[in-house]
Design brief:
four-stranded antiparallel β-sheet; mainly beta; seven-stranded mixed β-sheet
């Protein structure tokens, strides 16, 4: 059974850091690109970052460039999102998702989704 499980979320003050993890099982991670998405109340699902299956290509939303870093450890079946200098506007429910080999701008091209995890940035 395919599973993607997010962890590492929580409450942090502005300027703080969190590292999200996406633990994958049920499919071969080294053949899949993994994206991070987020959704705030009343807003659509937003692409945050993505890493290709090999790790050689990464993408970031303009709003998080220079602050967030995506990485993967296929041996551990885990993808990470390091979030630094967090801002209140980063508050959202964060999801990881997978698609074969390459990152995509389009949400509906991702085959597998986690249940999501809350990130709240507030003083």
């Amino acid at each position: 059974q395919v599973q993607l499980v997010e962890s590492g979320g929580g409450l942090v003050q502005p300027g703080g850091s969190l590292r999200l993890s996406c633990a994958v099982s049920g499919f071969t991670l080294d053949y899949y690109a993994i994206g991070w998405f987020r959704q705030a109340p009343g807003k659509g699902r937003e692409a945050v970052s993505c890493i290709s299956s090999s790790g050689d290509i990464t993408n970031y939303a303009d709003s998080v460039k220079g602050r967030f870093t995506i990485s993967r450890d296929n041996a551990k079946n885990t993808v990470y999102l390091q979030m630094n200098n967090l801002k209140p506007e980063d508050t959202a429910f964060y999801y990881c998702a997978g698609q074969y080999l390459y990152c995509s701008y389009y949400v509906d091209q991702y085959n597998y989704w986690g249940q999501g995890i809350q990130v709240t940035v507030s003083s």
